[in-house]
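Bug report

Summary: structure tokens for ParA family protein differ between web form and batch submission.
Environment: batch mode, default settings.
Steps: 1) Submit the sequence below via batch. 2) Compare with the web form result.

Sequence submitted:
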Amino acid sequence: MGKIIAISNQKGGVGKTTTAINLSSGLAKLHKKVLLVDFDSQGNASQGLGALTSEGQPTIYAVLMEDYPIRDTIVHDENSGVDILPANMSLAGADLMMDKMGSGKEMLLKNVLDPIKDEYDYILIDCPPSLGLLNTNALTAANSVLIPVQCEYYALEGVTQLLITIRIVQQTSNAGLKIEGILMTMFNNTTNLSVEVSQDVRQAFGKLVYQNSIPRNVRLSEAPSRGLSIFEYDPRSKGAMAYMELCQEFLNRNEGKTK
């Protein structure tokens, strides 16, 4: 059975989509079958892997709101080896429509992913930078949550807010939801701020924090504009090496677990 992992942080600009793209691609390179679900109306993960190729192309919105077949919506990226369930601005309308629904509105994503869950080793959900119904749907569908945290002031405050949301979801719609891990991003070991924030987060959350951090790296920022993961764009870059080390640590943590 595949494991579903939501990559979530309500703060924007923390490296969430970069992590979704490159963790997915790295796992695929390590011979895992991966589906990346773009659940952000900005559609950056879809654009970052070149998954949106034509006007009128079906997206996750059509699957959720129009009962469009999910397998006919998934796009396979030959470069990275990742399957992608794309999104675009129409997904913002889904959030509004969900708000008007009655009971069960937090289960919509779970209901469409469950039938294909066993076809993948890992399903990663790139969540929107908010704590609305889209994010609640992702947390309800997921087995665990991976939290990217930028090395900046107020980092702990953002994590604390998300943890409150996770507890609410555990109490209402997904009792088995776990913390997959906390990932320090945009780390610069030459600045006191990065080092201090990293130390504070590690002290607060202990073993939940990945040993590997993701550095600030220009190549990581450039890769999405080419529709490529960092492994295709510049496999020798510091960003590529850091994400591959993260993938290895991720798999080590998941060895022996029931997925």
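Above is the batch result. After comparison, the two runs are identical; trailing whitespace caused the diff. The longest strand covers residues 178-185. The domain at 3-254 is CATH 3.40.50.300 (Rossmann fold).
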